[in-house]
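Run log // design_07
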Protein backbone atom coordinates (compact mmCIF):
# COMPACT_ATOMS: atom_id res chain seq x y z
CA UNK A 1 0.00 0.00 0.00
CA UNK A 2 1.36 3.43 -0.87
CA UNK A 3 1.40 6.45 1.46
CA UNK A 4 -1.73 8.16 0.13
CA UNK A 5 -3.93 5.06 0.34
CA UNK A 6 -2.55 4.32 3.79
CA UNK A 7 -3.45 7.86 4.88
CA UNK A 8 -6.98 7.40 3.56
CA UNK A 9 -7.36 4.13 5.46
CA UNK A 10 -6.13 5.71 8.71
CA UNK A 11 -8.63 8.57 8.39
CA UNK A 12 -11.46 6.19 7.62
CA UNK A 13 -10.68 4.19 10.75
CA UNK A 14 -10.29 7.33 12.88
CA UNK A 15 -13.59 8.81 11.78
CA UNK A 16 -12.37 12.35 12.53
CA UNK A 17 -9.83 14.88 11.23
CA UNK A 18 -6.20 14.21 12.13
CA UNK A 19 -3.02 16.25 11.78
CA UNK A 20 -0.76 14.89 9.06
CA UNK A 21 1.93 14.06 11.64
CA UNK A 22 -0.56 11.89 13.55
CA UNK A 23 -1.67 10.23 10.31
CA UNK A 24 1.94 9.37 9.52
CA UNK A 25 2.53 8.06 13.05
CA UNK A 26 -0.45 5.68 12.81
CA UNK A 27 0.60 4.55 9.33
CA UNK A 28 4.08 3.64 10.52
CA UNK A 29 2.82 2.08 13.75
CA UNK A 30 0.36 -0.16 11.92
CA UNK A 31 2.88 -0.88 9.12
CA UNK A 32 0.39 0.06 6.44
CA UNK A 33 3.21 1.67 4.47
CA UNK A 34 6.88 0.80 4.81
CA UNK A 35 9.38 3.57 4.27
CA UNK A 36 13.05 4.14 5.01
CA UNK A 37 12.63 7.93 4.95
CA UNK A 38 13.42 9.96 8.05
CA UNK A 39 10.38 12.25 7.72
CA UNK A 40 7.36 10.15 6.72
CA UNK A 41 5.06 12.92 8.01
CA UNK A 42 6.39 15.29 5.34
CA UNK A 43 5.80 12.71 2.63
CA UNK A 44 2.24 12.09 3.83
CA UNK A 45 1.52 15.81 4.00
CA UNK A 46 2.91 16.35 0.48
CA UNK A 47 0.94 13.48 -1.02
CA UNK A 48 -2.33 14.56 0.61
CA UNK A 49 -1.90 18.15 -0.57
CA UNK A 50 -1.07 17.01 -4.09
CA UNK A 51 -4.27 14.98 -4.30
CA UNK A 52 -6.30 17.95 -3.02
CA UNK A 53 -4.61 20.27 -5.53
CA UNK A 54 -4.91 18.00 -8.57
CA UNK A 55 -8.27 16.35 -7.88
CA UNK A 56 -10.17 19.30 -6.42
CA UNK A 57 -13.70 18.28 -5.39
CA UNK A 58 -12.97 14.68 -6.37
CA UNK A 59 -10.16 14.42 -3.82
CA UNK A 60 -10.67 12.00 -0.95
CA UNK A 61 -9.23 14.53 1.49
CA UNK A 62 -10.23 17.97 2.77
CA UNK A 63 -7.83 20.35 4.47
CA UNK A 64 -9.83 21.15 7.62
CA UNK A 65 -7.89 24.30 8.46
CA UNK A 66 -8.39 25.66 4.93
CA UNK A 67 -12.12 24.95 5.15
CA UNK A 68 -12.36 26.89 8.41
CA UNK A 69 -10.37 29.78 6.94
CA UNK A 70 -12.64 29.91 3.88
CA UNK A 71 -15.74 29.82 6.10
CA UNK A 72 -14.43 32.76 8.12
CA UNK A 73 -13.64 34.73 4.96
CA UNK A 74 -17.19 34.24 3.74
CA UNK A 75 -18.11 37.00 6.21
CA UNK A 76 -17.73 40.46 4.57
CA UNK A 77 -16.02 41.96 7.67
CA UNK A 78 -13.20 39.42 7.50
CA UNK A 79 -13.06 39.46 3.72
CA UNK A 80 -12.56 43.23 3.67
CA UNK A 81 -9.45 42.94 5.84
CA UNK A 82 -8.15 40.04 3.74
CA UNK A 83 -8.57 42.05 0.54
CA UNK A 84 -6.54 44.87 2.10
CA UNK A 85 -3.82 42.36 2.93
CA UNK A 86 -3.87 41.22 -0.72
CA UNK A 87 -3.42 44.85 -1.82
CA UNK A 88 -0.47 45.19 0.56
CA UNK A 89 1.03 41.96 -0.77
CA UNK A 90 0.47 42.88 -4.43
CA UNK A 91 1.62 46.49 -4.12
CA UNK A 92 5.28 45.49 -4.05
CA UNK A 93 5.05 44.18 -7.62
CA UNK A 94 1.84 45.61 -9.12
CA UNK A 95 1.27 49.10 -10.50
CA UNK A 96 -0.66 50.24 -7.43
CA UNK A 97 0.37 52.47 -4.50
CA UNK A 98 2.08 50.72 -1.62
CA UNK A 99 -0.33 49.77 1.16
CA UNK A 100 0.62 48.96 4.73
CA UNK A 101 -1.42 47.82 7.71
CA UNK A 102 0.73 49.62 10.24
CA UNK A 103 0.49 49.23 14.03
CA UNK A 104 1.52 52.50 15.75
CA UNK A 105 3.98 52.28 18.67
CA UNK A 106 2.23 51.13 21.84
CA UNK A 107 -1.03 50.34 20.00
CA UNK A 108 -2.78 46.98 19.72
CA UNK A 109 -3.03 45.13 16.40
CA UNK A 110 -6.74 45.97 16.09
CA UNK A 111 -5.83 49.68 16.04
CA UNK A 112 -3.71 49.28 12.90
CA UNK A 113 -3.68 52.27 10.58
CA UNK A 114 -3.73 52.13 6.79
CA UNK A 115 -0.85 53.79 4.98
CA UNK A 116 -1.47 54.29 1.26
CA UNK A 117 1.55 55.48 -0.67
CA UNK A 118 3.20 56.25 2.65
CA UNK A 119 0.37 58.58 3.76
CA UNK A 120 -2.13 57.88 6.49
CA UNK A 121 -5.63 56.88 5.31
CA UNK A 122 -7.17 56.30 8.73
CA UNK A 123 -7.62 53.52 11.26
CA UNK A 124 -8.65 50.16 9.90
CA UNK A 125 -11.68 49.96 12.18
CA UNK A 126 -12.81 53.45 11.19
CA UNK A 127 -12.94 52.66 7.46
CA UNK A 128 -13.91 49.01 7.54
CA UNK A 129 -17.68 49.56 7.18
CA UNK A 130 -17.01 51.53 3.98
CA UNK A 131 -14.78 48.74 2.70
CA UNK A 132 -17.53 46.23 3.44
CA UNK A 133 -19.97 48.29 1.39
CA UNK A 134 -17.72 47.93 -1.69
CA UNK A 135 -18.73 44.25 -1.60
CA UNK A 136 -22.37 45.24 -2.06
CA UNK A 137 -23.10 44.56 1.61
CA UNK A 138 -24.53 47.07 4.06
CA UNK A 139 -23.12 46.94 7.57
CA UNK A 140 -25.80 46.55 10.22
CA UNK A 141 -25.76 46.76 13.99
CA UNK A 142 -22.99 49.37 14.09
CA UNK A 143 -23.15 52.64 16.00
CA UNK A 144 -23.23 55.33 13.29
CA UNK A 145 -21.38 52.92 11.04
CA UNK A 146 -18.43 52.72 13.44
CA UNK A 147 -16.77 49.44 14.36
CA UNK A 148 -16.09 49.15 18.10
CA UNK A 149 -12.65 48.33 19.45
CA UNK A 150 -13.99 45.04 20.85
CA UNK A 151 -15.43 43.92 17.51
CA UNK A 152 -12.26 44.88 15.65
CA UNK A 153 -10.14 43.11 18.25
CA UNK A 154 -12.16 39.90 17.77
CA UNK A 155 -11.80 40.09 13.98
CA UNK A 156 -8.02 40.58 14.10
CA UNK A 157 -7.63 37.93 16.83
CA UNK A 158 -9.47 35.35 14.71
CA UNK A 159 -7.48 36.21 11.58
CA UNK A 160 -4.25 35.77 13.54
CA UNK A 161 -5.39 32.59 15.32
CA UNK A 162 -6.34 30.91 12.03
CA UNK A 163 -3.02 31.97 10.49
CA UNK A 164 -4.60 34.09 7.79
CA UNK A 165 -2.65 37.10 9.05
CA UNK A 166 0.42 37.45 11.20
CA UNK A 167 1.95 40.36 13.10
CA UNK A 168 5.45 41.03 11.86
CA UNK A 169 7.04 43.81 13.93
CA UNK A 170 4.74 46.82 13.38
CA UNK A 171 2.89 45.37 10.40
CA UNK A 172 -0.13 43.11 9.84
CA UNK A 173 0.47 40.92 6.81
CA UNK A 174 -0.52 37.60 5.32
CA UNK A 175 0.75 34.52 7.09
CA UNK A 176 3.30 32.86 4.73
CA UNK A 177 1.35 29.59 4.58
CA UNK A 178 -1.89 31.34 3.72
CA UNK A 179 -0.11 33.47 1.14
CA UNK A 180 1.18 30.28 -0.51
CA UNK A 181 -2.38 28.95 -0.67
CA UNK A 182 -3.48 32.06 -2.57
CA UNK A 183 -1.28 31.12 -5.47
CA UNK A 184 -2.62 27.57 -5.45
CA UNK A 185 -6.34 28.25 -5.66
CA UNK A 186 -7.86 30.92 -3.46
CA UNK A 187 -7.31 33.83 -5.84
CA UNK A 188 -9.64 32.01 -8.26
CA UNK A 189 -12.30 31.14 -5.68
CA UNK A 190 -12.55 32.85 -2.30
CA UNK A 191 -11.29 36.23 -3.50
CA UNK A 192 -13.32 36.72 -6.68
CA UNK A 193 -13.95 39.30 -8.17
CA UNK A 194 -10.51 40.17 -6.86
CA UNK A 195 -8.71 43.06 -8.51
CA UNK A 196 -11.82 45.11 -9.34
CA UNK A 197 -12.97 45.00 -5.73
CA UNK A 198 -9.49 45.80 -4.45
CA UNK A 199 -9.34 48.83 -6.73
CA UNK A 200 -12.63 50.06 -5.26
CA UNK A 201 -11.21 49.65 -1.76
CA UNK A 202 -8.10 51.62 -2.69
CA UNK A 203 -10.35 54.37 -4.04
CA UNK A 204 -12.14 54.52 -0.69
CA UNK A 205 -8.77 54.99 1.02
CA UNK A 206 -7.78 57.73 -1.43
CA UNK A 207 -11.00 59.58 -0.58
CA UNK A 208 -10.23 59.21 3.12
CA UNK A 209 -6.82 60.74 2.53
CA UNK A 210 -8.42 63.62 0.63
CA UNK A 211 -10.95 64.21 3.41
CA UNK A 212 -8.20 64.27 6.04
CA UNK A 213 -6.17 66.74 3.98
CA UNK A 214 -9.20 69.04 3.59
CA UNK A 215 -9.79 69.04 7.34
CA UNK A 216 -6.14 69.82 7.97
CA UNK A 217 -6.28 72.76 5.54
CA UNK A 218 -9.39 74.17 7.24
CA UNK A 219 -7.83 73.74 10.70
CA UNK A 220 -4.71 75.57 9.59
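design_07 sequence
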Amino acid sequence: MNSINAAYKVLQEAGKPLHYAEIARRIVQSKLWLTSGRTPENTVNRDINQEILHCGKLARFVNASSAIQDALLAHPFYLAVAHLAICAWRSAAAMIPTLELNIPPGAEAYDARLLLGGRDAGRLRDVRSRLVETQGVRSRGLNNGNVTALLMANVVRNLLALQILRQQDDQLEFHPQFQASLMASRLRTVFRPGKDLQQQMLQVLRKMQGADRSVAEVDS
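The radius of gyration is 21 Å.
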